[in-house]
Description:
The protein is an all-alpha fold. The protein contains 6 helices and no strands. 23% of the residues are buried.
Amino acid sequence: xxxxxxxxxxxxxxxxxxxxxxxxxxxxxxxxxxxxxxxxxxxxxxxxxxxxxxxxxxxxxxxxxxxxxxxxxxxxxxxxxxxxxxxxxxxxxxxxxxxxxxxxxxxxxxxxxxxxxxxxxxxxxxxxxxxxxxxxxxxxxxxxxxxxxxxxxxx
Length: 155
């Protein structure tokens, strides 16, 4: 029963975010930023308390700085998402072209890899727009909610 309630809430939240995608994007960026800040605080405490080496102190400080940057500039997440998609797309295309000219039966897989690489590049371009990412977050909530409501409870 609780899965059904969570599913209904996810559907409602997904529809709200689809209607107002920028609010959903900013909320997701803030949750990400707070998670990064908490990770930084943990790493800093672990480094100071002597559980680990000096690297944790440096990583903790860097995570806290990065988390604060993301919290006060949520669009930075859009830039990182676009950068990662561009990077994946370029690597997929390069790997697929290399596989296309090597011996073996991977010709069709290489063509599919090139197509996926192009799709990743397109998604990278689209994810520069925070509104696009907000809609993606809303659709994800909507699909997750529908799945929770439609699928039987597993105890």
